[in-house]
Amino acid sequence: xxxxxxxxxxxxxxxxxxxxxxxxxxxxxxxxxxxxxxxxxxxxxxxxxxxxxxxxxxxxxxxxxxxxxxxxxxxxxxxxxxxxxxxxxxxxxxxxxxxxxxxxxxxxxxxxxxxxxxxxxxxxxxxxxxxxxxxxxxxxxxxxxxxxxxxxxxxxxxxxxxxxxxxxxxxxxxxxxxxxxxxxxxxxxxxxxxxxxxxxxxxxxxxxxxxxxxxxxxxxxxxxxxxxxxxxxxxxxxxxxxxxxxxxxxxxxxxxxxxxxxxxxxxxxxxxxxxxxxxxxxxxxxxxxxxxxxxxxxxxxxxxxxxxxxxxxxxxxxxxxxxxxxxxxxxxxxxxxxxxxxxxxx
Length: 346
What we know:
It is a single chain. By secondary structure, the chain is an alpha/beta fold. It has helices spanning 13-27, 70-76, 79-88, 103-111, 136-144, 191-198, 228-237, 247-255, 269-281, 292-299, 312-321, 329-336, and strands at residues 2-8, 31-37, 54-56, 96-100, 116-120, 150-153, 181-185, 205-210, 221-225, 240-243, 259-262, 285-286, 303-308, 340-345. The chain has twelve helices and 14 strands. Strand 11 (259-262), helix 9 and strand 12 form a beta-alpha-beta unit. It starts with a strand and ends with a strand.
């Protein structure tokens, strides 16, 4: 079986999910070619698992000061390059095309009349799940950005809908938690402003990860470049994370029992909805703007949620090998019955 798998490279959540899928696809002996779009080719890191992936320009969202700018997104788009990428992508010889919200692959499959399977968090928005911050542009983006003939949506809870738990790959539960160790991943915020807000809380050690790390003059705040291995080591024994409201990092944090403070991107419907879901489910705290008072309150709240999710990547690979039959209620319920939610205090 040969699969062409397109992955949205803006941010790191889609890539993190693809790493888990790649391991299971390779373990099943499936021949898979990965393509990544949405960031410059030299900005990808820790990509060995993808065995010689392809990279194209694609489309990405422009952010500025913690907010999506649709105007700059449109101005930065390269429509001629995008169309050329679609036309130059030859998908003949592949048995299945998968898109994790990656537009070049999705539109190339559509133009070549090849059925495309969408796997990712965005496809959960085809169902009745918590949805906030919606507007006509956001609705059109969700519908047409990376269209799929069949979509498998992922979320932290089923909300009574035919969606699956997250695809995550996390180590075993850490035995020792460093109670004052906090991971900070706010790539869309000004790192100088983040450091300024965190500086008064010198009873905590903050490990800041940033696409462009800046020097910190504070002993309790360290700034690190993006690194999958480094980030995972720090995430393993920390007490909590302060991050934007991306889906994949929150999923990993929930599985590892970390407390969460999420700051959604303004004007980004998916992140605003994720924050609403975290709050509704009682899985995390949110702040819509950077706030020292909210950060202080959260730092001294020791409550956390740990959720044990099954290996959804392996489930999906077996499902694909079985010919992708309809996911009926019995199939969905059997998976969610394996999910265990534990509320605890560090």
